[in-house]
Amino acid sequence: MTTHKNFILALFISILSVVASTAAAQSAASTVTLDQAVLQVQQETGGKVLSAEQRGVGRRQEYRIKVLTPDGHVRVMAISSEASKNPVMAPSTKNPPGKNAGSKEKH
Asked: What's the CA gap between 95 and 59, in Å, rounded?
């Protein structure tokens, strides 16, 4: 009877270790580092990164990256540290250029 209990205990421990290692691997694979977020913003905008910082937003981490776009505008982009939370970026419609868009000061 003791051998049967030891076998079940060993089986239970091995299953737990497999589940824990799988969860850790999935967690590590689905996170975005600051370097990866910077590279993503550079590729999406074609601009020059001016600054990048990590911020806590609730229970998750977010990267705020300030970039100088090729057309001379400064843009701040927020990238989640969770890869599944980062949709493919589309051009922003927030603050679209007005009638005199060419008269803005460029940096």
From this structure: 29
Q: How confident is the model at residue 90 (pLDDT cuts 50, 70, 90)?
A: very low
Residue tagged 């905008």 (tokens): 45
pLDDT in tens, 25-66: 545 446 889 999 999 999 999 999 999 999 987 888 899 999
68 pLDDT above the threshold of 70: yes
Paired tokens of 56:
């806590």
Q: Which residue in 81, 78, 84, 79 sits closest to 60, CA to CA?
A: 81
One DSSP character per residue, 33-80 reads -HHHHHHHHHHHH--EEEEEEEEEETTEEEEEEEEE-TTS-EEEEEEE
